[in-house]
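Integrase catalytic domain-containing protein structure dump, as promised
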Amino acid sequence: MIWVYFLRNKLEAFYCFKKFKSMTELQTGHKVQCIRSDRGGEFLSTDFLEFCEANGIQRQLTMAYTPQQNGVVERKNRTIIEMAKSMLHEKGMPYFLWTEAVHTAVYLLNRCPTKALNNITPFEAYSGRKPGIAHLKVFGSLCYVHVPTELRHKLEPKSTKGVFVGYATCEKGYRVFDPVSNKLLLSRDVTFDEENAWHWTDKNGSVMTTYSIENQEDLDLKSDSSNENSTSTPQTLDMQESTSPTPGDISSEERRTQAYDHTPLKWRRLDDVLAQCNLCIMEPEKYADAAQDESWLKAMEDELQMIEKNETWELVDRPTEKPVIGVKWVYKTKLNLDGSVQKNKARLVAKGYAQKPGLDYNETYAPVPDWTPLEHLLL
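structure tokens r here:
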């Protein structure tokens, strides 16, 4: 069984894992015992490690630059991405709908028989029920969403033309994108024309490829069970087309602002997302790892030169009656706004946490004067 979560940033990975763990353990009655992942920073955070230790979850990490050690996941990711790309290209759809294509690909793969499960579907192996397939439609096909009488006048059309982009997760309905109003509709009353597709051009005849969501949280996925037999009302999610001013109208300040792509991660071009998926930035955890890379050796050399230049240290004889505090290297990869690597940065810091109160230091305080006497002194 496959689950997919779309993250705004890597910090959300820990939250999604906890949500996934609670859901699967409640549904299956089995505890998560082991998790295998790469060495991404989101999987090596202190919160993630402490959570796994507290819940008795064994960690299995791949070695650096060896994705084949987690081959099942890596190959499944490739299958999903290739399937999503094929669906988009088949109907000539713009890449900003890549998340919808990935979501639909996962939905279909969970309902396809596989030899690994003796030719049953992952859905059946997980839930014990055979999945229904009568509702499956061709991704990207033309469709018409019924507009309830309460939402239209007598002379207005009874339906809205759109593009089928997937299946609702928390409701029994379809996800339909309206390219004219830039809205995402959720409805169960949809008529499909699977032989035809939308012509992805605007009034000027140019290809429509740039859209952004104003508020992704506007989509309410709560269903009303009391209206199960009534006509459903399509839910909408507003989307605005981004426009670009002419080069003569852009100031230097605006150019610096526009250098960063503010489009939400969910709606960026699929090419950009694939490029970032293939980029794995490894930050060494100890000196032995960093010493094997020329770029990190140069970063450490630059740090030592800067320490000497700023006269940060003063060489003294080693005291015999007091313990000596050690030092450690901290490594960090600095990134540009577009996600590319700017430089490797190394810091040499003291192990202050090794000091013991009463032995290495006594009570400390920072005196803060009151403003009134300080004002008199200044006068």
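The first strand starts at residue 34 and ends at 37.
lmk if u need the other ones
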